[in-house]
Amino acid sequence: MKIRTNALAGIALAATAALGLAACGSSATPAATGSASAGSKASGEITVYNAQHEELTQDWVDAFTKETGIKVTVRNGEDPEMANQIIQEGAASPADVFLTENSPAMAQVENAGLFADVDKATVDQVPAAYRPSTNKWTGIAARSTVLVYNKSKLTEDKLPKSLLDLAKPEWKGKWAAAPTGADFQAIVSALLELKGEAATDEWLKSMKDNAKTYNGNSSAMKAVNAGEVDTALIYHYYYFGDQAKTGENSKNIGQFYFKNQDPGAFVSLSGGGVLKSSKNAAAAQAFLKFLTGKTGQEVLQKGTSYEYAIASDVPANDKLVPLKELQAPTVDPAKLNSAKVTELMTKAGLL
Predict the structure, then answer these.
(1) How far out from the chain centre does Cα 267 lie?
(2) Mean pLDDT for the chain?
(3) CA distances from 182 to 33, 121, 157, 189 (A)
């Protein structure tokens, strides 16, 4: 499992560049059509800039190539790193497809005007709750926010009822997070969209005082398991991934889902999009359709990433809490603002 510890420093500068590109891209003629012609058969090869779990993406690629014969070259990196690279490359990018773990990086590239429209056949495979309203990219998987806690220190009835409660004085020194990671950035992006800038600013400032910070979600979870801190705000799959192995870093841990449309119940989308500049748009669109189709979603369901399948009526891995039971808030992922989040987190002293 690929662990996310990427720093967010420098994103604000890249986001500024994105705005400039967006202004230019709105009227520019794309280098290639973003959609395959009706009835055309895709072939050839494509390049994927990948910020998803490397093992999961490789499983997808292997299955896709076996089915279609299309060769896929994968370049791996982190969400912000890859988004910034695509924006800097612009119409000259060699990437055909961009895959992420979290949606703010997708919105960053979309705001730069660099995505083609997703083919309708692909859009039709993904429920509206799991794709942006713009259909400039689509969800390919999902992960839920969860508060993990040390069961020897706390019982569920003593846990905060809302993500916002972690700002209260009684939680000082009792919770942890990995603020420099893209995972946490996505959670804060949802908080910003749901509660506004003032509330998010206040929450982040309190986090600076209340929370212990770690370099990555796995480290935060390990700290809870070891009793270094009572709770940590992470994504669900870190726990399930550890449980599927030795369980040594999660044996003392319980998982608490905030539910009730709370910001802490946010479900983050992993995204996939086709670049306007793709030199093989037909194959790129075919790849995205495959990921969200039955076979691609079954690869996800049966794999070891423990992310949620979201498309083509494929249920999640049966070890996971069903998506419908998470009671997640409604958030349009196209509106998640990574640049503003970086600004607010820097202001709060978290970056």
Answers:
(1) 9
(2) 90
(3) 31, 30, 30, 10
